[in-house]
Write a structure and sequence with these properties.
Largest sheet: 7 strands, mixed
CATH architecture of the largest domain: 3-Layer(bba) Sandwich
CATH superfamily of the largest domain: FAD/NAD(P)-binding domain
Structural class: alpha/beta
Number of strands: 25
Radius of gyration: 22 Å
Number of domains: 3
CATH topology of the largest domain: FAD/NAD(P)-binding domain
CATH class of the largest domain: Alpha Beta
Shape: globular
Number of helices: 8
Strand content: 25-35%
Length: 420
């Protein structure tokens, strides 16, 4: 099988990428999705709040996904569901398997990676104690309740304040469960402010910052957890232990870009994001392989995932139809003081028409600070920010005219703290 573009992952990023590639003039496109339907994680996100940027209206997750699935079908874009990709190579050869076709080998002119992300499990955070039933990641519990029709428990504690955990606190409450509380290791929440308000405050569910679980009890089913306060080094403080009886524990302790396939293709990964290093075209370190969405870095809003998918799809089409001009002149982006990471990590100026958007997260909570954008040693833009928090991604637009005629090789974004 030969295709011009193969999109791996049929979630919001992959669907947007395929639609945009088709609209950009490429006909021979294949989407490969491992689940039983297109739409990705959106299909289990039955709450509203999606689409405000993309469609200018509030939609549920399945409604948002359906908008793109309808476009895929209208454009006659081929897709395979229940199909798992086993391997991709630097030469863009894809090995996949499903029950209908068996083992499939596909040759692509261009590949778009949009596999999304996965949740950290109990094993990733090393909570001591016994190993009873009743411990779920928040996303697993969400699928059980919203798609499979199973209730996960009656008396529930949640560790971690990521958006999925916050949303599940509300969802479980609405289903009649008692959510005792949400504990967060850091001194700030990892979720959006609107979710803290709508999912915890509105239901009187306590959020315990700078706390973590130090023991899990239970033989067959979890009986309870021991919660402790932590110090500045995130170490439990002796004497602060408190015991909570519960029959279920949900973990919302972070998301990790799904990059086993990226590793199989020998793509260079960013040590901070865990996703592929990309340039202004969302092209990875291997020519013709693009990446977008949560496989690159974890987003807050699906609208921005779709936007990134469109950019990858448009540029993959351009690569197939025209090719790119080779450029030795590359400006590297660099996270300065107070910034965890920046995407894209590399910028080729001749490929930018008007402006470039940089995505980033702060490494702590800051108030009334200034974001400085520096080209070499020169500050080319200052942006006043009332608040900066790791739970909310920042977008910074840079006018191409500010970057032209420079000999600098690095673009740094940093937080200018008071007194500097």
């Amino acid at each position: 099988m030969d295709y011009d573009i193969v999109v791996i992952g049929g979630g919001p990023a992959g669907l947007a990428a395929a639609v945009e590639a088709k609209k950009s003039g490429v006909d021979n496109i294949l989407i490969i999705e491992r689940d039983r339907e297109l739409g990705g994680i959106l299909q289990q996100c039955i709450h509203n709040g999606f689409g405000l940027h993309e469609f200018k209206e509030e939609l549920t997750g399945p409604e948002y996904a359906e908008r793109f699935i309808d476009q895929v079908k209208e454009l006659n874009i081929e897709y395979k569901i229940d199909t798992k990709v086993l391997n991709i190579t630097e030469d863009k050869i894809i090995s996949a398997v499903n029950s209908k076709n068996g083992l499939i080998n596909i040759i692509a002119k261009s590949i778009i990676l949009s596999m999304g992300c996965r949740e950290r499990t109990r094993g990733a955070i090393n909570i001591p104690g016994t190993r009873p039933a009743g411990i779920f990641t928040a996303g697993t519990a969400q699928r059980y309740i919203n798609m499979e029709g199973y209730m996960v428990g009656k008396k529930i504690f949640i560790l971690g304040s990521g958006d999925i955990g916050l949303i599940m606190a509300r969802r479980l409450t609405l289903e009649g469960a008692e959510v005792i509380g949400v504990a967060e290791l850091m001194p700030y929440s990892g979720g959006l402010t609107r979710n803290i308000v709508q999912c915890l405050h509105d239901y009187n569910i306590p959020l315990l910052l700078s706390h973590t679980i130090t023991r899990i009890d239970g033989k067959d089913r979890i009986d309870g957890i021991e919660l402790s306060e932590v110090d500045e080094d995130n170490r439990p403080i002796p004497g602060t232990e408190k015991y909570y009886e519960c029959d279920t524990l949900l973990l919302s302790v972070g998301l990790i870009p799904e990059n086993e396939l990226s590793k199989s293709a020998n793509l260079k990964l960013d040590n901070i994001t865990g996703g592929p290093i990309v340039n202004e075209f969302m092209e990875t370190t291997i020519e013709g392989i693009f990446a977008c969405g949560n496989v690159v870095h974890v987003h807050d809003l699906v609208d921005y995932v779709s936007e990134e998918g469109r950019r990858a799809g448009k540029n993959a089409a351009k690569y197939v139809l025209e090719g790119f001009s080779k450029s030795e002149r590359v400006i590297q982006t660099k996270a300065g003081k107070g910034i965890r990471y920046i995407v894209p990590q590399a910028i080729r100026l001749e490929n930018i028409d008007n402006s470039i958007t940089l995505f980033m997260r702060s490494d702590d909570v800051y108030s009334n600070e200034t974001l400085n954008v520096k080209l070499g040693e020169e500050v080319i833009r200052r942006i006043k920010k009332r608040t900066l928090t790791p739970g909310e991604m920042e977008r910074v637009n840079i006018d191409i005219n500010l970057l032209k005629d420079t000999v600098a090789e690095t673009l740094v974004v940093e937080i200018e703290k008071e007194g500097q």
